[in-house]
């Protein structure tokens, strides 16, 4: 044996892993020896090109080596053939063919890494590292031998074990039905997709292709909401989103909100079956549409991950959700589930595809909240972080490295524009932003689908096609906050009269007043006003949200939070300043209030692309302290105090430093609680 | 602590396990401490009565103890209540209630043992010990708590872990859909059926009942033959067969024998789907019929085991069997399979039932042969044992403790009465036994469905309803052997003329002769003869069988076998003496030739009732040396030598000691090979 120090030194970047290898070792073998993440599907046969690397030449003082031109072996026939046929990028080599002869620095480009990091979409979601449950393996299978009879499947299993260290695989009968033909078509060289997750279940061969399969593998990350179902068709090798789409949850015909669907089931025995069939059918349709949109065969979709709230979770699984509608809000199951797609009637993708449903946190805090937690990672935060997923129910997480708490709070649908006099869903024509001049009390606004503000030239022309049809969730929040800043409502939420406010836009309406944002009645259009009832509905919703956050802060013993992350598609549209003026969220530095976008969807994608992420969230939910708002004695108290805008007692110093709220009071002794339909004891 | 020797001594019979326990220990707890197999479903709550024991009193010199009347505690309220309600057998106590106070001898009756031994049906099948994969557990589940939210399923899993040490259970969505209602109906006391087999898969909760479920659990042991499908509905607690039934394999309409079904698939692309649907439909029908016959709910059938030949194996699983019809006879899969019953469309039993398909040994030696091996256990035999499962294909096993070999041999359907001039299936009216007087050359016979021999008074009256319709497999074997013993055929198989044999029953038929057993033509009935062609067909079949056995003996280096076991429903009807005169089987002491009955069916039942049996056969098949007759050079040679009756060269000393075969020769220079359609090179 020669002195190992005489052996060539190989340094891989960007990992920085280095070591000496025997001269003549292939780059792929060297990477495996040194634990460098270098991909290969064909197992070193020079056909898949997944193991491409870029050698660097010259002096590297940083690494203390000089790389000569002959550091790697010359191109061999396999490499030459690959380059002729497919073309290798300038400077690239096939890691399984190029042999190390002298000291060398080798760069592994991202596309050659199995565990490549996928660029994160938002500063408030953690980066995602590819670690999918289902992977492709190219294998050469031994041919049958009458002297040593064994099944084709057993020889495939042996090949996977010997060539890839994938042990003890199993398969469904439908795979076995396909196996013999493909083995012979591929002349005993085949690519198989093997699903091996973190559950300890034996790896399962999902599909097989003759020769090297280059069509990729795909998965669906599904965010199953009460109102909309959104899905991202994702490349399981790169993490890239190939297509994204959404559709309305067809369960809406059984009830707009979750509790009305639960009621439907309670009133109609067996009704859960209809609801289950409706949502499963929608998932199957969506999957089909996405495959079409991306131009891929549905058979290449081999996995799906699903996040949803507890009621949708139960209805998807065919479980009667009645227990979730009443104390003690017992889930049938809270753990994560790994299921054949067929169990969910998701038959429009690969027939052997697997689905993964994220765990629920509690009876009111579902797999969607778990996904938000996975995406925003409060348990890894140094700062005390408040995460709010705003929807019909708000899911709230509070925590840092030491501990995370969670609750849900029944905000109701006001934040989505429902129960608002001129409210509508976020759709073209809806007012989504509002500004009120504090001097003139005149409003200006923007509508969805139009780039101009309403007071800008060209607005009328631009809005001709959409019209101004109503006000959506983010619009009503801005409107109420702007009214408070302009002195049109007082801290109790009471709208002043025309006299009190000095603007004719404050119109009397019975014993209360409303503020007119837009009057299109002359042109046969609607009149968009904010009524006293609208203010009360927003107050109820925001009080519930604030009270939930406050409850978690109490439990944690926190006076304030360092950072607030708003999640949910809606969260992305809320202006932090307006949310804080309204008192939806606790006081915090405005630059510390950010949006994580559709964090639940991001969490679903992370679980789709990474079994490590699945393991993380399964462990994570167990460590979260669950707070049940319905039985927390202080919830009512917090709720009542949060009814004022922004708050009856909390000082909001950070907000005060940037916004000066006028001190007004319009209570003239009448019933100030107006449209407030819930009677509450004042604390 | 008191001196342990002062503690009461408890001796359990029949196990003989003994030890000292703290005074006041319940019998059930003592049994668990001492590793005594004492059943309990309710976990010691005094409601299931599975832990009944019988204390014995008086002096036991054998055990060295004297048992006093107060050895056990007095009846408590729970025992009294049970006795009042259900009645305890005289002398019995509930093991979970009776406490040990002084030295005692306790008998555990068979019905209180989990691993009770089931009485074996035949001397040639091994005894069966109950060790089913699916068992019942009574559990008390914690109620939901809003302060510690968790799913009902997680609390059930915790109860199973804490109360029964059954860990990490999983369940299907359809179970989860049922869970909440049953938990509440049972007031948080439920019985669950948990399937935990030997595969290392996580235990699976299959079903749940409120309170204590006393309806039992059942399984189906299915013997899926090419011609008939037989199933035994078996009690999974006792091993008792509750109902047995069979039906014709509906695939017969696609081809009588396996190769014609394989041809059908080869000629009709997609034809395997029709064959698969046909056989699956039959299994579902059979399961339904058996549940009805036994008067149980089909939901209580939670398992099925299936044994079958390789072609049926593939067709059941939906796999194109074409590869099995041509060299190298590659199985798609040879391993055992554990599948949801739904994967086999077996939807007439519990929707979450599991099926287990025994492993195949090789492309020609299927799961049916594996089941025969399990039932007859040649690998545990001190003597060299030859096991022959006679059917359209004969499966042959040869071995002892040191080594087991297996092959299959293409006997063709002659042994089943097919390709025989007067042949028919074994059904009423078929001649099943034949005797020929060696002096008068006159035959007498018995037909199925009639108790009299044909020469006895009352035969005509008794046979009036059945008639004499033909000759079945066992009948033709006896007839040919009797003809040889009576000197009507010579060792080459040639039938003598009336002149040569001295009986007018030998009628000329072209250039050959036939022997008339029964002539019913006067009454419009059939004439049942054994033609030269019939003899040739039987010779071909028996030569194949003998040659297969001989091949295994060659491989083993054995001159003779110690013991022969005939398996298969047909095996049960073959007389050992006639089989040996014919030279179907090698020479052996006649009293060492026995029948194991339907050993394949017995093997299926063993696998149904015992996971240990499954483990045993899975390990076992790997150790069996497979011999492929199609490529064995000496097979042809053995086949030709075995054409003579009993054999051209083998001496058959054991047979000679009990039967004196006449030395005759009817070859007059004509073509002695007559109907032998295969031309073979003489060795």
Structure characterization notes:
The structure is a homodimer of 683-residue chains. Chain A is an alpha+beta fold and 683 residues long. The first copy, chain A, has five domains: 4-112, Ubiquitin-like (UB roll); 133-210, Ubiquitin-like (UB roll); 218-357, Nucleotidyltransferase, domain 5 (2-Layer Sandwich), CATH 3.30.420.480; 372-413 and 537-656, no CATH class; 414-528, no CATH class. Helix content of chain A is 27%, strand content 22%. Chain A has 17 helices and 30 strands. Chain A has a six-stranded mixed beta sheet with strand order 15-14-13-16-18-17, sandwiched between helices. A six-stranded mixed beta sheet of chain A has the order 29-28-19-20-21-30, sandwiched between helices. A five-stranded mixed beta sheet of chain A has the order 2-1-7-3-6, covered by helices on one side. In chain A, helix 8 crosses helix 15, helix 10 packs across helix 13 and helix 12 crosses helix 16 (634-641). The longest helix of chain A has 25 residues, at 532-556. The N and C termini of chain A lie far apart (85 Å). The model of chain A is unreliable at 671-683 (pLDDT under 50). At the A-B interface, helix 3 and helix 4 of A face helix 3 and helix 4 of B.
Mean pLDDT of chain A: 91
Gyration radius of chain A (Cα, Å) is 30 Å
- Strand share of the residues of chain A? 15-25%
Individual helix count of chain A = 17
> Main sheet of chain A: which strands, in order across?
15-14-13-16-18-17
Question: Got a strand count of chain A?
Answer: 30
Q: Helicity range of the residues of chain A?
A: 25-40%
Query: What is the 3D form of chain A?
Result: elongated
Q: Largest interface, and how many residues on either side?
A: A-B, 51 and 51 residues
Give me the oligomer status: homodimer
Domain 2Fe-2S ferredoxin-type (chains A, B): 8-112
GO molecular function, one term (chains A, B): iron-sulfur cluster binding
Pfam families (chains A, B): Fer2, RACo_C_ter, RACo_linker, Raco_middle
Organism (chains A, B): Pseudooceanicola atlanticus
